[in-house]
Amino acid sequence: MVIGLGRFGGSLARELAAHGSQVLAIDSRPALVQRYADELTHTAVADSTDETALRRLGVPDYRRAVVAIGSDLEAGILTTSLLADFAVPHIWAKATSRRHGRILERVGAHHVVLPEHDMGERVAHLVTGRMLDYIEFEDDYAMVKTLAPAEAVGVPLGRSRLRTHHGITVVAIKRPGQDFTYATADTVVEKGDIVIVAGRTTQVETFADLT
């Protein structure tokens, strides 16, 4: 179930449907609901802060819900609270700030998404560093896609001691013209290889700057 068919909610609903999920999409704006009616399993025009309306749509029976309401903070919070009252097992909620996200967690969201903030942070890392891609997780952990530095070239990963020197783990490696493969202690890195490394945020950032 996706509640809110703005840019984020609409894209999410389409992606879920494209991968075979049965999707109920709810929005209070008829024009938006009509736009997605032919692409999604079920669509409905409804006020997501109205408990009776949600019950009529069978919302309490859903196991996964995404509250993709960004512009109306009160509506997003009230909707999340209702889903929690319905005991929906998995509730994702879109937040516009970390403070907003903390409020959503207090009223029942199991997962908080900050799409604009997360994308801005990711692009900032790509623009200012040597990274080809960057994904940050909770607890100060991240994965980076970058070119292999000179010190890693020509020796097996088990002998390069990258983990000892830099605190990172090489997870996968890609040769030009080939697919990614899992890295092992016997993998020999060559010049021009792309590597995916994992570790603490500052450590993977520092490692990417070696290239």
Automatic annotation (TrEMBL):
Transmembrane segments: none annotated. It comes from the Bacteria. Residues 1-114 form the RCK N-terminal domain. InterPro entries: NAD(P)-bd_dom_sf (IPR036291), RCK_C (IPR006037), RCK_C_sf (IPR036721), RCK_N (IPR003148), Trk_Ktr_HKT_K-transport (IPR050721). This is TrkA family potassium uptake protein. Signal peptide: none annotated. PANTHER family: KTR SYSTEM POTASSIUM UPTAKE PROTEIN C, POTASSIUM CHANNEL PROTEIN 2-RELATED-RELATED.
